[in-house]
Design goal:
Shape: elongated
Structural class: alpha+beta
Number of strands: 11
Helix content: 40-55%
CATH architecture of the largest domain: 2-Layer Sandwich
Radius of gyration: 33 Å
């Protein structure tokens, strides 16, 4: 059984002699060696391993040869990361174990397990975590700026407007009064713009009342300011969902509606909110000019199609975009809802 394990395992095994020469290696080890290096190993040349090894990972460097395991034949090391230049696939990371088998004859074994897939999985995971942290930081900053605009800037402008209106009753001449009215009108428009910008940055209603309420507020603003009418149909089973899910759903809907307003050349957009099979679905449709999904370069600023897809994938969802010049454009996001709360409740009961 041990012989079969040695021959058939996917872990590479190298047996070293007292001077660093290769005494034996299994098929998995032979398969990753370049022919020229394998020949040197077969001849028992000392330090032949160094020709393919590119170092191990220390606390200071990703790849280093300082304090190499081969220089300390009496030392047993386990679970360190090693890099080898392998045949056909190039530089590869391995989880390594170096162990003394016979101290008198100074025979040792190096066992390697390829970490390429685990490394790639870890990199993808870390990238997603970093993106989630960036988006969370962005949303928190939007929230801070929104509140600052609403609670500080807008309030100061409102106080200024009150002062201007008081001046009307202080016996001003007609020319000065006309100028005052003109300034008052400009400040009113600017105040409305600041309030609108505050809502666009981060609507407080999203944090306070949830997704549907936030979209209804957004719809009113768009209808008032841009003449775009949004037909909302909601079949949500709950008024509130996880904060990250609500934020992603709102941002995707917001961007899809904005794109329809900018490029679809329509006055009506249809928004559908639904919960099906423990998944939140949001769909934005228009009957506009459409575009070629396979050959499209995003215009303008904002999240864009790539940003929407990236956001929805971070919460384990999917994004589908269907568009044609005859049928308009449909953007649909499907986001799985978390089950932890239900599982916990079932466990408690």
């Amino acid at each position: 059984m041990l012989r079969k394990l040695y021959d058939r395992t996917t872990e590479a095994m190298f047996f070293f002699g007292a001077h660093g020469e290769i005494l034996s290696m299994n098929e998995a080890a032979k398969s990753i060696m370049e022919p020229a290096i394998y020949s040197k190993m077969q001849r028992g040349e000392a330090d032949a391993m160094c020709l393919t090894c590119r170092g191990f990972t220390s606390e200071d460097e990703q790849m280093t040869c300082v304090s190499c395991f081969m220089e300390k034949p009496q030392q047993t090391l386990s679970s360190f990361q090693l890099y080898l230049e392998t045949k056909d696939v190039g530089l590869q990371p391995y989880s390594a174990t170096y162990q003394i088998l016979d101290r008198e004859q100074e025979i040792s074994v190096l066992m390697l397990r390829n970490l390429t897939r685990q490394t790639q999985t870890s990199e993808v995971l870390h990238q997603k975590l970093r993106m989630q942290q960036v988006i969370l930081a962005q949303e928190n900053e939007r929230k801070r700026i929104s509140r600052e605009l609403h609670d500080s800037v807008a309030q100061e402008m409102l106080s200024t407007l009150v002062d201007l209106r008081v001046l009307k009753y202080m016996g001003m001449n007609d020319k000065a009064l006309d100028k005052l009215r003109h300034t008052e009108g400009s400040l009113m428009r600017l105040l409305d713009e600041i309030r609108h910008l505050s809502v666009e940055l981060r609507p407080a209603v999203l944090d306070d009342f949830g997704l549907e309420a936030a979209f209804r507020t957004h719809m009113k603003n768009l209808e008032k300011n841009y003449g775009l009418y949004i037909h909302l149909e909601s079949n949500l089973k709950k008024s509130r969902y996880d904060g990250a899910i609500e934020t992603v759903a709102y941002r995707i809907g917001q961007e899809a509606i904005l794109n329809a307003m900018k490029y679809a050349q329509v006055e009506d957009v249809f928004l559908y909110l639904d919960e099906v099979d423990n998944q939140l679905q949001i769909k934005v449709c228009d009957e506009g000019v459409g575009f070629d999904v396979n050959d499209f370069s995003p215009q303008g600023t904002g999240l864009g199609l790539y940003g929407m897809r990236e956001r929805v994938e971070l919460v384990g969802g999917s994004l589908t975009i269907i568009s044609s010049q005859q049928d308009g454009t449909t953007v649909q996001a499907t986001i799985p809802l978390k089950k932890e709360r239900a599982t916990s409740e079932n466990h408690n009961s």
